[in-house]
Amino acid sequence: MVNPPNQADIVIIGGGIVGCSVAYHLTELGLSDVLLFERKQLTCGTTWHAAGLVGQLRASQNMTRLAQYSTELFAALAAETGQETGYQATGSMTLALNAERLEELKRQATMANAFDVTCELIGADFVRERWPGIDTDDVLGGVYLPGDGQTNPVDTTLALAKGARNRGAQIFEQTPVQRLAIENRKVVGVYLEDGCLVRARQVVITGGMWSREFASQHDIHLPLHAAEHFYLVTEPLPSFTSMRPTLRVPDEQVYYKYDAGKLLLGFFERQAKPWGMDGIPTDFCFDALPDDLAHIEPMLEQATRRFPELADTGIQLFFNGPESFTVDDRYLLGETPEVSNLFVACGFNSIGIQSSGGAGKVLAEWMRDGKPPMDLWDVDVRRTFAFQTEAHFLRERTQETLGLLYAMHWPHQQYTTSRNVRLSPLHQTLLDQGAVMGELAGWERPNWYAFAGQDNYQYTYHKPNWFDACQHECMAVMNDVALFDQSSYPIFWIDGEEALACMQHICANQMDVEIGQIVYTQWLNEDAGIEADVTVTRTAEQTFMVVGPCASERRDATWLHRHAEQFNCSVRQDQDTTIIGVMGPKSTALLARLLNGSEAIEQLAYYQSQQYKSAEINVRANRLSYVGERGYELYLPRKHAVSLWQQLMSNGADLGVTPAGFHAMNACRMEKGYRHWGHDIYDHITPTQAGLGFAIAKQKDNFIGKAALKNQRGPMTRRLVHLAITSSNAPFMIHDEPVYRDGEAVGLTTSAAWGHRVDKSLAIAELTHAQGVTREWLSEGYFEVEVALQRYPVRVQIAPFYDPKSARMKD
Ligand SMILES: Cc1cc2nc3c(=O)[nH]c(=O)nc-3n(C[C@H](O)[C@H](O)[C@H](O)COP(=O)(O)OP(=O)(O)OC[C@H]3O[C@@H](n4cnc5c(N)ncnc54)[C@H](O)[C@@H]3O)c2cc1C
User: Looking at residue 60, what is its pLDDT?
Assistant: First the structure.
C-alpha cells in the first residue's frame, strides 16, 4: 500500500457518502490537494445499508435547495464519472390519515411549490392507481412529489469518490485517523494510527457515528448518538411488476419502497433504541445489529393491514443498522466553535444520502471562502451546546428524535425527553403560578401561563389552546404591567484597556457613548450580513455588558471571543446574574415602589441604564423593551430572583401585574416589527435590507462590515416588510409561507404570530423585487399569502402594525 503524504491542503476523516461528497465538491472548486482517510473501507459505516430514498422537501427553503441539488447531482453523476449510481426519479407519495396531518401536508405542499419543488395534492384514487393493493379506506388525502427518487448508496458514494479522485484527491482506506493535531486552538493536521503526523491547512470530520467520540478527545462537542434503525425486505411480490413511487404513511410510522420487485418496508418507531452507549466498536465494518422483531411488530402488523399482500409474502431480510441522530434531528455542519479550520459534517438523522450532495457542496464552499455560502443556521454546528453531548442527555433524547421524523411537526412542539437541564432561579415559582415551559438551548422557559383547568399544550395548526392565556398576558402588557423571566438570555462582560476599541470594531452602532447608555446594535460580517443582534450597555469607561438571544449563545460567544483576541480586553460570560423584564405602562409605578437609587426610576430615560437597590438587593434597571411598551429589564444576582419576583407580584397586585411568557413576548414583538435573529435576520441579510439601518453608525471610523455597507448601491431589491391577513377567516401562519403580488411569488414569511393588541394574524416577510421593494411597489400591488394551499389577502407595509412611532415606549 502506498504511504500517504505527510502534508496536504485538506484532510477528510471518514469515507462514507458525506466524506466522499465533501472531497468531490472540494476538488470541483479546484481544491485538489485533498487526502481522505477511511479507517476500513469506503461506505462500511452507515452508508452501505441505507434504503437510498432521496426526497427533496425539507423544513426550510435552503435545506430544500440542498436536497434538490442532491437529486440533480445523483442524476448526473454516472454520466460524469462512468460509475453507475442506480439513481431513479421514482416520485414519492405521503398519505394523511387525519385532518391535522392533511393540514400539515397542505402546508408542506404550499412550501414545496414556493421552493420550485413540484408537489401535488392527491386523493385516494390517485394512491390506489399508483399503489394497487394499498388500503385507502381511511386515507383523507396526500401529496405526490414526482421529482423524488431513490439511489444506490454504495454506488453513489463510489461515483463521488471517483469524481474526486479524477480531479486529484487521494483516498486511503484501512487508514484510521487517531487524533487531531491542534496548535493555539487551530487544527494543523491529523495523527494516523502509526503516530505519523499529516499536516493540513483544514481538516473535516465526516466520521458518521464515530464523530462524537473522536472529537471529544479534544473537548470538541458534537452532540450525536447512534440509534438502531430498522427495515425489512420481502421476497419478490407478484404485484410488483413495475416501479412504484415511494409511499410514506407517517401516521403509521412506515415507508414502502419498491426494491427491484420486492418491498422494502422501513420504520420510524415512536421510541427508538439508542445504540453504542459504550462507544462505537472500532472493528465495525459492513456490520448489522441483531434484529428485534418485537420492536417493529406493531408497525409491521399495521402495514400488513394497510397492504394485505404482505401477509402472504415471505420476509427475505430483517435489517437493523446504526445511524447517528442529533438532538434536534438536524445535521451538524460547519466550522467548530472550539477549534479554527476544523470543519464537520455528521449526524445525518437518516437523511444522509439525500443530504450528502447539498451538504458536501456548501461545506466545500464554506471552506474555500471562510464563510457559509447561504443561511445555514438550521444545521450550523454552532447552534449546539456542550451539555448536549453528555451521555444521559443524548441517550434519552435519541429515543425521541428518530420517531419525531415521522411524527407531526406541530408549531411550538416541545421535546419530552432530556428536559430540565438549565433552570431559571425562578423555575419553581413560575411553575407554581401556572407556567407552561418550553425548552430553548436547554433552558426551561415559561411560554405561557395556564388558566385554571389547563395544564399543557394541545398541539394544532389552528387556534392553539394557549391563545386566550396569551391574549390575557398581552393585554396586561398593553394596559398594566407584565413580568417576564428572561434568565435564559446570555450576558457577556467585555472589560479592559481596549474594551471600547474592541466594541467599536465588532458593533455596527456607536459604542463611544455616555456611561449608562444602552445601545442596540448588530455585529456584521465582512459582507455586512448580520452575525448577531444584541444590546450593549456601557457600565464604565472600559466596561460593556452585552446581552443576546438565548438560541445563538454559543455562536455569539465564539464571534465575540475570536474578534476580541486582537484587543487588550477580557470577555467573560456572566453566570450569576439573571434578568426579569417588567413591561407595560404601569411598570414605572411598580418599580417606584421597590427601587431606590441616586436617580428616581421615573427619571430614567429610554435606553438608559442605572444601578438601584431594592431592600438589600443590587438591581440594574435598563429601560428598554422588546414588546413595544414602557418597560425595564432588571439585572440582579440569581440568588435574589425569587425574592424580587415575589415583591414585584405582591406590590403590583393593584396595578394588575401579571406573569407573561414567551408566546406573549413573541406576539408583541411581531406587532412592533422587532426582528428575531435566526428567523427574520441572519448572516446573509444586511441591516439596511432588514430595516435596521437606524442602528448603523455611518460616521464611525471602522467596524466589521463597514466597507460592504458603503458599497451597497442601487435599489433595495430585498427587504423585510410587515404583513397582516385582512380576511376574517385568517389562519395561523408559522414561517416560509409564500407571498404573492398580483399573483406572482415575491417572497416568504420569516416568522409569524397572532398580534393580540391589533387582533390580527401577522408575519414578517422577506420580499424580493429587481427594481426595488419600495413603498410605491408595495402600495400599488395586490398582496396575498398562501397557507395550506389557500391564498389570503394581506396588507403589506414597511412600518409595523403597532405604535409605529414607538410613542408608548418613549413617553
Ligand atoms: C436502516 C437505515 C436506512 C437509511 N435510509 C436512508 C435513506 O433512505 N435515505 C437517506 O438519505 N439516508 C438514509 N439513511 C441514513 C444514511 O445511511 C446516513 O445518514 C449516511 O449514510 C451517513 O453518511 P456518513 O458519511 O455521515 O456516515 P458513514 O457512512 O458512517 O461514514 C463515516 C465513515 O467514517 C469512517 N471513520 C470514522 N472514524 C474514522 C477515523 N477516525 N478515521 C478514518 N475513518 C473514520 C467510518 O469507517 C465510516 O466509513 C439510512 C440509515 C439507516 C441506518
Answer: 86
Taking the CA atoms of 532, 537, 543 and 546 in sequence, report the sign of the dihedral they define.
Answer: negative
What is the per-residue burial (b if ≥16 Cβ within 10 Å, else e) of 476-506?
A: bbbebbbbbbbbbbbbbbbbbebbbbbbbbb
pLDDT, one tens digit per residue, over 364-384 is 999 999 999 999 999 999 999
Q: How far apart are the two ends of the chain, measured CA to CA in Å?
A: 78
CA distance 687 to 693: 5
Contacts of 484 (CB under 8 A, 6+ apart): 580, 581, 582, 583, 659, 660, 661, 662, 665
* Rounded CA separation 629/458 (Å): 30
**How far does the centroid of ligand 1 lie from the alpha carbon of residue 448, in Å?**
40
Return the residue whose CA atom lies nearest to atom 26 of ligand 1: 208
Report which of 748, 739, 735 is spatially closest to residue 781, judged by C-alpha positions: 739
The amino acid present at 508, given as its one-letter code, is: A
Under 8 Å CB-to-CB from 108, ≥6 apart: which residues? 57, 119, 143
Mean pLDDT, range 563-586, rounded to an integer: 98
Structure-block grid coordinates of residue 760: 390580527
pLDDT band at 1 (very low <50, low <70, confident <90, very high): low
Q: Which residues line ligand 1 (CB under 6 A)?
A: 13-19, 37-40, 44-47, 49-53, 176-177, 206-210, 214, 229, 231, 321, 323, 346, 348, 350-354
DSSP state of 681: B
Residue 645: alpha-carbon gap to chain centroid: 32
Packing angle of the helix pair 61-81, 352-369 (nearest 10 deg) = 90
Q: What is the mean pLDDT of residues 28-51?
A: 98
pLDDT over 90 (residue 714): no
What's the CA gap between 642 and 488, in Å, rounded?
15
| Best residue for ligand 1 mutational test, from 46, 88, 216, 248 (most atoms within 8 Å of Cβ) | 46
Is 483 within 8 Å of 581 (Cβ atoms)?
yes
d(CA 152, CA 136) in angstroms, rounded, equals 30
Instruction: Give the integer Cα–Cα distance in Å for 444 and 446.
Output: 7
Question: What's the pLDDT score for residue 455?
Answer: 84
Q: In angstroms, rounded to a whole number, what is the distance separating the alpha carbons of residues 343 and 143?
A: 37
User: Is the predicted pLDDT of residue 519 greater than 90, yes or no?
Assistant: yes
The residue with cell 451597497 is: 712
Strand partners, 618: 613
Residue 326 is predicted with a pLDDT of 98
pTM over 0.70: yes
Tell me the one-letter amino acid at 745. Answer: A
